[in-house]
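Lab meeting notes turned into a lecture example. A postdoc, R.K., suggested we walk through two folding results consecutively so the class can see how the record format repeats. The first protein's sequence and structure tokens come next.
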Amino acid sequence: MKFKYKNFGKNIWKPVIPVVLRNGNQEIEYNVLLDSGADMCLGHAEVGKAIGIAVTSGAKYEFGGITGPGIAYKHYLEIEIGGYKIPDIEFSFSADLPLNYSFGVLGHKGFFEHFRVIFETSKKLVELKPIKQQL
């Protein structure tokens, strides 16, 4: 699967791709940044609520990063990327992300462990190749 980087103006391009987050029969399309420096997958609490998740019922933890310190809550849901479904991944939600932060983040736990990711920054493309899990 190949995705074009998104232009955020002033010649700022980022590997932000559309995914579907699914909780049972409720789903939402959500743009996410592929962030090789992120430990986990994280989105705004309002996105979790939109698919019927009681956000603060998840395991609570503190996180840090570019948005500063915050509190997030772990949940498990299905994510679909370009037609490829990953059931039961760990995805956290936080109300401490600014509302104008218009995309979530896909990090190592939950995402990068499932894909070989090739960033072609000069071409403004990112390619995802599913890694088949051996049992």
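The second example is placed directly after the first for contrast:
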Amino acid sequence: MSFGFGVGDFVAVGTLIFKIGTTLRESSGSSAQYQELVLRFDCFEKLLKTVHNQITGSQLPPSTVRAIGVHVSRCEPLLQKFNKTTEKYKSSLSQGGSGKKFKDNWRKIGWGMYKRDEIMELYDGLGMQIDAIRLLLSCHGS
């Protein structure tokens, strides 16, 4: 008699349970990692505002200003995606948590298993844009 699932299904569930357990054990740092990333992204936003203020009214060639503008515009969707992706984690991963232990632990699992790597990709993407902006500014002694 078949029940619609086999040994492979049990192995998959067992693997998932192991991964969740490992993530829970490692989740004590999830809140600190999240908070550090929030600070980093906040710094990126401030840096971009500073760059905007610096190039406005500067003596940089128009082509350089346009190139910087392209890199700044590429940062906006990355920052928006960061905010959208982390929205549901804010209360659970903020210092002190939401006060709902089960929900906070569930969010830590989700963060550790699915979102941390996605956010690091966004962070790396922002870093590349910032590096390009720095290079453009340094070429003109700004």
